[in-house]
Design brief:
mainly alpha
Length: about 120
């Protein structure tokens, strides 16, 4: 749990830096902005006052977006803004991949429609 708490500020810093980057595709910026609005909004699919389950929709949506970013954006762009080492980014990617596996592919496809760059 302690490592998860350290992860959040890193993710927020990376996302803020990516939003300011001109190389970042507009569609990815829209997805990140929508995620930020959803997380800040008091309205959720599962209300936050329900213990454990209340955070589940937030965690899964964040995992889908992080997994999508890591799969659809150029890795060098993400590594440039990741405030830790590459090993910690790989650990985050593995957790996001495992969590986003719980979300149906058709839902994930609506979040990130673009193909991964070659």
């Amino acid at each position: 749990m302690k490592s998860l708490l350290w992860l959040l500020p890193r993710l927020f810093r990376m996302i803020a830096s990516l939003l300011a980057d001109r190389e970042m595709p507009r569609s990815a910026k829209i997805v990140l902005a929508a995620l930020a609005v959803y997380l800040a909004s008091p309205f959720d699919l599962i209300p936050d006052f329900i213990p454990v389950l209340g955070l589940l929709d937030d965690v899964l949506l964040t995992a889908v977006v992080v997994d999508g970013l890591l799969n659809h954006l150029d890795r060098s762009l993400i590594v440039r803004y990741w405030p830790g080492d590459v090993a910690s980014l790989d650990a985050v990617a593995a957790v996001a991949r495992r969590l986003s596996a719980w979300v149906p592919l058709r839902v994930k496809g609506r979040v990130f429609r673009a193909r991964r760059p070659a």
